[in-house]
Design goal:
This protein is of the alpha+beta class and 381 residues long. It has ten helices and seven strands. Strand 6 (358-363) and strand 7 form a beta hairpin. The radius of gyration is 36 Å and the shape is rod-shaped. The two termini are 53 Å apart. The chain crosses the membrane at residues 42-63, 75-93, 105-126.
Length: 381
């Protein structure tokens, strides 16, 4: 008794060929398009093979001064129609061999070509010698039959080899697509894990800040901070962790985050946004700036008593987008900038863009810290 998995494997194989076209609508539109294209390719191959065979045999008859085309032409068309049915049967056989090893493909394909050659030879001889005998046709002999079988075997073997090669190409193509899909899924999982890594880190720091405000009896500021935190978390959790969002949305999230921190640092920080209007539609990973802004506030503003300026900038560099977050505080001189936030941003850029993105971070010569990101520039539609 066949298992459900075996039935599904057989079903998947057969739907790539002609006999089960009526089952295709169960699949997606893209899948149906692929199936239809492969079916057309199979039909074109069969049609091209028999047109070529018909042409070669007709030219051979004309050169050898055999019977006129008016007599032989219709008979060859009937032979081509019979051969087309044999080719469709071979297509069905190849479909059932898709789960077998490649040597078995070759073995059964060769046997199938021989069976086709015998069948075409028998059909031709029965039609020309028994059903509608040709004038002057000699009696059937074994040597002539073997010669004709070998001739047709060469033709049928060429068609079978071509179709097997085409089928194998489709197998390789499907395998490559499956491998690419697995890589994409793994990449999305990695990006999601990195994105979700930010949230506990951010929540921990923010809740500590709220706790500090409560201990200082700044209850109104703590309440405002808690409400802003709720709005920020609700917004960030609603975004797809693997998605790219317009830069304007990312900047909007950072403004919301800064409203949370304003309760603590409003008298000691000034934030400058330098985002050209032409780059507001540039696509960036969601929350890619949040760890950088958080670190600038925590280390640059939080560890300095003086007014600290935090800049969030974007610029176009040919076909690349440059993002910059820097501050003129003094805290980064101690931290060194190697914490969770920077590592997370670096890893997420690598997961999204690979070697096409760059990440640099370090102390500024005039004091403070600077983080610069470069990634491929892609504008939202």
């Amino acid at each position: 008794m066949r298992s459900k998995g075996d039935e599904m494997d057989s079903y998947r194989a057969e739907t790539l060929h002609l006999p089960l076209l009526d089952l295709v609508p169960r699949f997606s539109g893209a899948y149906r398009t692929v199936i239809a294209a492969r079916q057309r390719s199979t039909l074109y191959l069969i049609a091209a093979f028999w047109l070529f065979t018909f042409a070669v045999l007709s030219i051979h008859s004309a050169v050898s001064e055999a019977l006129p085309f008016q007599i032989l032409g219709p008979r060859r068309l009937l032979t081509a129609a019979f051969g087309t049915l044999l080719c469709l049967a071979m297509v069905r056989l190849h479909a059932r061999l898709r789960s077998r090893s490649f040597p078995r493909w070759i073995l059964w394909g060769t046997i199938g070509a021989l069976v086709m050659a015998i069948a075409v030879t028998g059909f031709s001889m029965v039609m020309n010698r028994i059903v509608a005998p040709l004038p002057g046709m000699p009696a059937i002999n074994t040597a002539e039959m073997i010669q004709r079988i070998l001739l047709w075997f060469g033709y049928c073997l060429a068609w079978t080899g071509t179709h097997l090669a085409m089928t194998y190409h489709w197998e390789v193509e499907d395998e490559q697509q499956r491998a690419a899909a697995l890589v994409e899924l793994a990449q999305q999982a990695q990006i999601a894990a990195l994105r979700y890594q930010i949230n506990p880190h951010f929540l921990f720091n923010t809740l500590n800040s709220i706790s500090a405000l409560v201990m200082e009896r700044r209850n109104d500021d703590a309440e405002s901070m808690l409400l802003n935190l709720s709005a920020f978390v609700r917004t960030t959790f609603a975004t797809d962790p693997s998605a790219l969002i317009p830069l304007s949305e990312e900047v909007g999230l950072q403004r919301l985050y800064l409203e949370i921190e304003e309760a603590r640092f409003s008298e000691r920080m000034r934030v400058i946004f330098e985002i050209p209007e032409s780059l507001e539609g540039a696509l960036v990973p969601a929350l890619i700036l949040q760890p950088l802004v958080e670190n600038a506030l925590r280390h640059g503003v939080g560890e300095s008593e003086a007014m600290t300026v935090v800049r969030i900038c974007a610029a176009r560099r040919s076909h690349r987008l440059q993002l910059l977050v820097d501050d003129d505080g003094a805290g980064w001189r101690r931290s060194g900038g190697t914490g969770l936030g920077l590592n997370n941003v670096r890893d997420r850029l690598q997961a999204h863009f690979g070697d096409q993105a760059s990440f640099t971070a370090g102390a500024r010569a005039t004091g403070g810290f600077r983080v610069e990101l470069e990634l491929p520039l892609e504008l939202a539609a």
